[in-house]
């Protein structure tokens, strides 16, 4: 199976969140083995996971509901990893009836001994994993299925409103890269630091990056979204971390020098603009409709503190606009 060359600088995204192993399945759609096809691919996600949330957002923003099946996997245990509990989402994989996501990884590669992660893009025809790297799955979704979409939803016809407009591609890639290192992954580096020195270093970099983003939003050309009038990939990738910030990372990951709601007025306004937007540019409220605060708090309380006790605050989870 030949992996298609990745069309942009992806080095930073190779880092996983806990043990930093690169994602293993890196095929693209379209490619020789994986042509776009309606009903052929399945996206496995969990709603607590910020990496999966990127793919859920783009799936919704692009209107891929009838093209790529979305399956929720809601529980994870330390021995077998992700499994279908039936509390949220199905109690078995609707495609094969298996109980564990690990069984899908082993079906794709019986020798597989890496991390069992979501999101996961599955091909029902070849019965294998297409890709398990969120940054690539979202780029697949941006354009890969455009032939099945109405003309106004195709990236090629959207011009400046595309998720990665040609004239902004370099700037978006650059911002994504430092946001990934210091914010998306930065919260994990602080939260899972095993020494005081490492924690100090990562938490400092995290808040420097948030200060830099706050300043970025002060420029007229960076309003109302990170690169102006339209929602871009950069907004999507930052949103999934910042919507979890005050309610989970602040407390559970000790990212607590400042809060978005009280210390970053521009980031806070930007975050609420995305969350509360129910217009056509969010496909009728995809940010709000895919953000489940209780699932996020519950998920992080078992990962971070290990005892499953969900913090009471802060409430409300998001303030009104
Ligand atoms: N680089 C991957 C990371 C995905 C990832 O780390 N997902 C987490 C959930 S938030 C996971 O499945 N962790 C399970 C594990 O590491 O065992 C991506 O962005 O898609």
From TrEMBL:
<feature type="domain" description="GST C-terminal">
    <location>
        <begin position="165"/>
        <end position="292"/>
    </location>
</feature>
<dbReference type="Pfam" id="PF13410">
    <property type="entry name" value="GST_C_2"/>
</dbReference>
<feature type="active site" description="Proton donor/acceptor">
    <location>
        <position position="188"/>
    </location>
</feature>
<feature type="site" description="Lowers pKa of active site Cys">
    <location>
        <position position="300"/>
    </location>
</feature>
<feature type="binding site">
    <location>
        <begin position="115"/>
        <end position="118"/>
    </location>
    <ligand>
        <name>glutathione</name>
    </ligand>
</feature>
<dbReference type="InterPro" id="IPR016639">
    <property type="entry name" value="GST_Omega/GSH"/>
</dbReference>
<feature type="binding site">
    <location>
        <begin position="133"/>
        <end position="134"/>
    </location>
    <ligand>
        <name>glutathione</name>
    </ligand>
</feature>
<feature type="active site" description="Nucleophile">
    <location>
        <position position="49"/>
    </location>
</feature>
<feature type="site" description="Lowers pKa of active site Cys">
    <location>
        <position position="249"/>
    </location>
</feature>
<protein>
    <recommendedName>
        <fullName>GST C-terminal domain-containing protein</fullName>
    </recommendedName>
</protein>
<dbReference type="InterPro" id="IPR010987">
    <property type="entry name" value="Glutathione-S-Trfase_C-like"/>
</dbReference>
<dbReference type="InterPro" id="IPR036282">
    <property type="entry name" value="Glutathione-S-Trfase_C_sf"/>
</dbReference>
<dbReference type="Pfam" id="PF13409">
    <property type="entry name" value="GST_N_2"/>
</dbReference>
<dbReference type="GO" id="GO:0004364">
    <property type="term" value="F:glutathione transferase activity"/>
</dbReference>
<dbReference type="InterPro" id="IPR004045">
    <property type="entry name" value="Glutathione_S-Trfase_N"/>
</dbReference>
<dbReference type="InterPro" id="IPR040079">
    <property type="entry name" value="Glutathione_S-Trfase"/>
</dbReference>
<dbReference type="InterPro" id="IPR047047">
    <property type="entry name" value="GST_Omega-like_C"/>
</dbReference>
<feature type="binding site">
    <location>
        <position position="82"/>
    </location>
    <ligand>
        <name>glutathione</name>
    </ligand>
</feature>
<dbReference type="InterPro" id="IPR036249">
    <property type="entry name" value="Thioredoxin-like_sf"/>
</dbReference>
<dbReference type="GO" id="GO:0005737">
    <property type="term" value="C:cytoplasm"/>
</dbReference>
